[in-house]
Amino acid sequence: MTLIGTPESERIPVAVIAERRPSTSPWAEWSWRVLEVLAEAPEAPPWTLLRQEAGRALYLAGHAEIALHPTDTDNYRHNLASPEPRLWVVLRTAPGEPGMALHLVTLDPGEAHLYADVGSDVLESLPMPPFLRAPLEAFVARHHRERGFYKRRRDRADPEAMARRRPEDER
Predict the structure, then answer these.
(1) What pTM does this model have?
(2) Pairing mode, if any, of strands 48-53 and 56-68?
(3) How far is Cα 14 from Cα 89, in angstroms, rounded to an integer?
């Protein structure tokens, strides 16, 4: 596996396998789910059909890069410390066949939370594959810095700022 990026941030290339099957909902024709994230996959265009049977279709959704940022190490630590570390994949509706696009793969639960309530996005959580755990742990060990809590102080209110003024005072 090759890590790409600057000394501060790193990117881990991955490939995503997704499944499309007929929906049981009257409002959607298809139901989508992410099945697996791979360390390596054959070079193929996004949404290459891998297998089709009984109305279900298995696709290579595409290749993505998981971005690791030094400022997010606290979130990564929480993910690694959880009973089952996770990764998240976001699929977004797109024009054309098959109707979806691979939008994001992340190991940051905070970033994944941003996509939790977005209209037509599909957010899938999967167990973190073993090939991602060691690079994530090494990244956190290199970049994590404990940050103290800093409470902001508000500016004092200026009671004259919203006062009524006479037109001749504005000149």
Answers:
(1) 0.78
(2) antiparallel
(3) 11
